[in-house]
Every structure is written in structure tokens, then in C-alpha cells.
Amino acid sequence: MNELKLYAIFAETVSSGSMSAAARRLGMTPSAVSQAIRALERQTGVTLLIRSTRKLTLTEAGRRCYPHCIRLLEAADAAAQSLVQARDAPTGELRIAAPLGFAPYVAPALAPVLTEWPQLTLSLVVDDAMVDLIEQRIDIALRVGQLADSNWIVRKLGEFKTLLCASPSYLEQYGTPLAPSELSAHQWIALLRDAQGASMLKEHRPALALEMTNQQGDTELVTVEARITSTNQVTLRQMCEQGMGIARLVYPDVRPALDSGALVQVLPQWGFPRVPVTMITQKREGEPAKVRVAMDALKRYFVSLELPAEYLRRP
């Protein structure tokens, strides 16, 4: 690596026309420039410059070497410019990992960014499993729920409220529960990771623990048995819309279904602890511009997913 520096000093000396001029441009002393060129000549065993009191003259070997040194400087400058561009302008490939249910949020959040920066491309890795962020070269990972300790940088994106939902057809057939104590008598659909002691035996259905709080601050812990489990939140919503049971669903996922009447909120006077939504990145300092603008866009969009007033008044 030291040889590369010597070649760069040689090229700058030839371009400047003198060692003193090269020294000013390089922030060195003329003596240090002269010593560097002498060191290069000793290493190569070739004289590159003929020195006189008035000027420097290239030897034949020096003339042959000089164009290669210029390309070396151009390559170094291009490398520096690429780093500046990565720091200041969103370019290249942006890789984001998100759960399956998050795909509808990533698209509208980042659409303005991709429109503004045409040199930026997006690769979205959608998987409910915990993908290997290093192996997959992930810039930003979106996560829901509590996270295990890691060396990654975690930033809070927001909080999702979860609601108990059922279809009108289900409630017509099985009745509408009026208190948490009535929930255990109903059909349940649940995320597999939220169920405990999952088993394929009918008499040992997965148990789902529901900690609920009302407007007065009273808390009840209810355990229900899940008849249907899935690893995917979208699948739960679809089965819930088909009248297959009650499900605890994330509000942004079910907002269209609630607005259209395909789903109805159950026990609206009772609520659950909010679920944290986070962004994970490799580091906090020196992040590329593409990561910074993407995180800002995601933050802005997730603010728009806040609950409307009628839900905010509930627990």
C-alpha cells in the first residue's frame, strides 16, 4: 500500500511541474516529496526523474510509468467520489427485510423515495422468518414485537394497536361476547408464535393468553384455545373474514375490512398492550444516504397508520 502512495506522489510531481508545487498540493514539504520519489526509484531500481536547478525531466522509464500513475489517481478519485455519492445521494440497491404482512406498508412508504431518486433500486425480502441480515445484505429490517438482544441498532418506528375481530356472519352464528370471560367459549384463530404448547392433537389445542384492560384500568387475563393457527397475519385476517373464528389482529391490517364491514371489532371497550414496530440497521454512524432517506420515509408513513379518534379513545 505504501508503494501506491509513492506512485501517487510521483504522478502529482510530474503534473505540477516541480516538487515544491506538488508539495503544496499534497500538503507535504518539498523534502518529503523528494524523499518519496527517491524511495520509489530505489525500490524499482529505475531512475524516473532527472533533476536540475530549473526543472524536472522525465526519463524514458518515467514517461512509461506516468500514464499508469495518472490512471491510479483517477481510480482513487473515482473511489472517493463513489463514497461521497453513497453518503450524500441515495443510489444503488436498497435491501429491506420485512414480515409478509408489512409488504403493503413498504410500497407506499418508499414510492416517493424511488420516484425522487431514479438511481436507487429496491429489493424487498418478504419473510415471516428471521432472515440472516448479514448473509442477505439487508440494509433495513422491519420487525414487530419484542426483540432479543443483539449488536444491531434498533430504532422505534411506532406502535401497533391490536383488536379482537370477527366477521358479522360468525357473530350471527355464535353470538357476540359481552365480557372477556365469554371469550373461551368461542372459536379462535391465532398466530402460531403467540400460541403456547402447540400440538396436533385435538384435545391439546394451542393456548392463547390474552391480557386485556378496560377504560377503568381493570385488567383480566383470559386463556383461550386456538382451533386454527398460522404463521402469517394476513392468513389470519382472511380466515377471520370467512367467519372461521375470532382473531387478535393488528389495526392497520384490518382497517380496510373494518371500514367495509367485512370485520367487526369485538369487545371494543377492552384493549391490549401496544405492539412495538422497529427498524434494525447495522450501525448508526456513517449510514449511506439510501438508508437515511428510506428510514425517514418509513417513519413519516407509519405516522399515518395511527388509529383514528374512535379507536384512540378505547384502551
Account of the 3D structure:
The protein is built from ten helices and 16 strands. With 315 residues, the protein is an alpha/beta fold. The strands form four sheets. The chain has a five-stranded mixed β-sheet, covered by helices on one side. A five-stranded mixed β-sheet has the order 12-8-13-7-14. Helix 1 (2-16) crosses helix 2 and helix 1 (2-16) packs across helix 4.
The CATH architecture assignment of the largest domain turns out to be 3-Layer(aba) Sandwich
CATH top level class name of the largest domain: Alpha Beta
- Low-confidence spans: pLDDT under 50, at least 5 residues? 198-202, 307-315
| Number of DSSP helical runs | 10
Mean pLDDT, nearest integer? 84
Share of helical residues: 40-55%
Our Rg estimate from Cα atoms comes to 32 Å
SSE string: HHHEEHEHEEEEHEEEEEHEHEEEHH
Q: How many distinct folded domains?
A: 3
Anisotropy-based shape? rod-shaped
Gap between N and C termini, in Å? 63 Å
Strand order of the largest sheet: 4-3-5-16-6
Largest sheet: 5 strands, mixed
Proportion of strand residues: 25-35%
Number of strands: 16
CATH topology (level 3) name of the largest domain: D-Maltodextrin-Binding Protein, domain 2
Descriptive tags:
single chain, 315 residues, alpha/beta, Arc Repressor Mutant, subunit A, D-Maltodextrin-Binding Protein, domain 2, 3 domains, five-stranded mixed beta sheet, 10 helices, 25% strand, rod-shaped, disordered C terminus
